[in-house]
Specification:
4 copies of one chain form a homotetramer.
Chain A: E1 5-10, H1 18-32, E2 36-41, H2 53-56, H3 76-85, E3 88-94, H4 102-110, H5 112-115, H6 117-121, E4 130-137, H7 142-154, E5 165-169, H8 178-199, H9 214-235
Parallel strand pairs in A: 1-2, 1-3, 3-4, 4-5
Amino acid sequence: MGSVKVLGVNGSPRKYGNTFKMLWLALRGADDLGAETRLIHLYDYHLEPCMACYSDNLYECHFPKACPLYERGDKFRELAEAVLWADAIVFATPVYWFMASGKLKTFIDRLTALENMIYHTGRSLLDGKVAGVIAAGEEAGAANALSWMLLTLNMMGFHVPAWGAAYYHGRGDVLENEQATLDAYNVGVAVVRLVKALRGEHAGSEPWYRLDVRERVADLVEELRKIAEEEKEKARETRPWLL
Amino acid sequence: MGSVKVLGVNGSPRKYGNTFKMLWLALRGADDLGAETRLIHLYDYHLEPCMACYSDNLYECHFPKACPLYERGDKFRELAEAVLWADAIVFATPVYWFMASGKLKTFIDRLTALENMIYHTGRSLLDGKVAGVIAAGEEAGAANALSWMLLTLNMMGFHVPAWGAAYYHGRGDVLENEQATLDAYNVGVAVVRLVKALRGEHAGSEPWYRLDVRERVADLVEELRKIAEEEKEKARETRPWLL
Amino acid sequence: MGSVKVLGVNGSPRKYGNTFKMLWLALRGADDLGAETRLIHLYDYHLEPCMACYSDNLYECHFPKACPLYERGDKFRELAEAVLWADAIVFATPVYWFMASGKLKTFIDRLTALENMIYHTGRSLLDGKVAGVIAAGEEAGAANALSWMLLTLNMMGFHVPAWGAAYYHGRGDVLENEQATLDAYNVGVAVVRLVKALRGEHAGSEPWYRLDVRERVADLVEELRKIAEEEKEKARETRPWLL
Amino acid sequence: MGSVKVLGVNGSPRKYGNTFKMLWLALRGADDLGAETRLIHLYDYHLEPCMACYSDNLYECHFPKACPLYERGDKFRELAEAVLWADAIVFATPVYWFMASGKLKTFIDRLTALENMIYHTGRSLLDGKVAGVIAAGEEAGAANALSWMLLTLNMMGFHVPAWGAAYYHGRGDVLENEQATLDAYNVGVAVVRLVKALRGEHAGSEPWYRLDVRERVADLVEELRKIAEEEKEKARETRPWLL
């Protein structure tokens, strides 16, 4: 079977903000349990909004054949490959107006093609995968974004481990918030443990909410501070308004 | 002051489905009260997802100046003109995965530029407008979409009249559902009454939930049946999978 | 017509916490515009959970006749009197597990009897009233509570003024948060302005989001600090675990 | 270890309605996989609303010691015993005003005492259990109720299996809806499979969304029809308005 494969999906246009930071910590949590990880920034991929072929004709929605959107430079197929590769996926979104970003919503809408294979083959292409969810923002809405993601992913075929959700709501840098960084790290740990349990490997007998990893998380936070700074510097080129 | 101006925003890619039908009925409701109406199909306008300049630098988010997205063929400015023209806006969305469509979410995210003028001039460009909301879909999620839209629009500056929300959830044609067509029509009536009240004109003393308009709605439904059929035929060209 | 009557409903068991404080500020905002205000603490009233007579027989749900719950020491009728007295109601809830409190949910469920009069008389007893909503809590969920309240109240017959919603999410005392105290005060101001507009009185031409009331709010905050302290002291008798 | 223990919690006041029916099917699904099941009707237990001791003093919230509410005839301890007995719990709620019932919300609020043991002992009493969720109602709100339950239970320590959520929204009898009855049955099957996987037993290699159980569900529906009719007859005594 090999190592557990965990994909991180960043739904924020920023590669150095709180959403990215929490996702990075989750992937390091997965990595600490021996998983192979990959982080994708959704904004690197042009995505057309769903055309709702399904509403006209249920069987038109198919992966990889259908989706007339591919002709418009749409990159969904590439993202889908990463989704299919993964055993577990951690979806991270900024909170825009009390909900996930429009980019992430569009991506989730497009995942219908994978879930809809249940009508073509009897099995959703997402059946049995594991999901974790993260939301970060200044204003309210983290719970709204997380709960929406959980229900949607669960109804596409994803299992969700205990404390598979984490959020940060506040003005500042999430790295200053011990609770949020711990929660984020634990999302990555939890998804890997659940994948292992589902494979018949031992899930571990520690509590599912891990309090014994504080020092590890503190070390990772230091490493992440530098990485985020570098990403921020790189970003000045395409985001000249950055203070 | 002139007639009340009502904009209808269709967040569905289909111009003949339940979302469109309910929106059309709402606009006829507004028209019956003397309003001037306009219906916009969001999918006719290319929209880039929000780049979150605001998260880097609050003052970068501005209308009409900022938004580096305009360079990419983005049409937000045109949509914004329609929004600014209107006294009231009825937002209609299909229900995709328990929420509004990604297209509508992206549009709402982009409206931040108008709301953010409060930091530039002391007043949101949406301050004092009136909103109505509609959601239609087969599966669950209408309430989730409506409640999210209501909070968001309210926090951007929109007033919401009593029964300013309507939904349809079901497999079939909304035109066969008396309750839903009545609710949709009433959304349009309500937004106009509220604009008038805010202008100092008489709002009318009838209940805000109108039961006395059933015959009128039944007539409109017959007219709409033909219109939707025509739109569906026209759509076959760009949607060849239509049954 | 007399002064505008505004009822504040506190859905928290504490009469000195953030929920209460924000509600108090909202009522002072209403009072500053000449309204007559009343504040009710839901927890002072025993309320049985809804028995869903409506699901068996639509016409059984009636106010004031039905509701077999009255026999159990249930106080809904008294609360309903206050609701009917009011032109506008500000509902304030603590955030418990990402939602409004069970007490407030139960109260809202029971309001069905007033809304259901539309089937008996053609008009909901709540038709045309105005609502404001407030949510306060440490953890996430304020947006979830607010959006749920907005949709529900709107579908019972309440209009909602622009920025008729306010929240606070944080560990500390809301009185230290200028934004939240300003938002809360503005909810009270907005509901009164909207009632006046609906009566045919002038709504005022200032923006609906008031930035010019900061000093006034700061003064009220000082007054409230003492009041909350007194309420907290009084509470030690029934809440001996208070630190 | 013995058989998997599954508790069903009915949050509806009716023991014969759609909520009960879907829950009964879920428990039969669990039973078909060898689980021991128990069904509890929340309305049989007097429950006081949470007093938020936690907001005054984090450590006051404790199970089984604290909760001054026990003195008022409150039955939470009995319900908690059932919760602790179970490996998996299926929570079923009617949809009242776009959300779970006030009764269920109050019960969930009270579960804080079990989750809060993490501050006393380092482990939530709910850590590692498995949850399924069901919502049934005429009007919209099923998704809202389900998503709220999923996030809340997940953040208390529950894992959620793929398709661990099911709903029915419609006017009629859920037993006439093949999809909804299948979904409900599958919730019970899924929670048992996940408990087994977490114990190190084989989870089974069939898809997590089971299409091969249609005949079994059809048989159970026939059995349930009679049971529900009997429960309805019994209920006439305490619900004389039943048509």
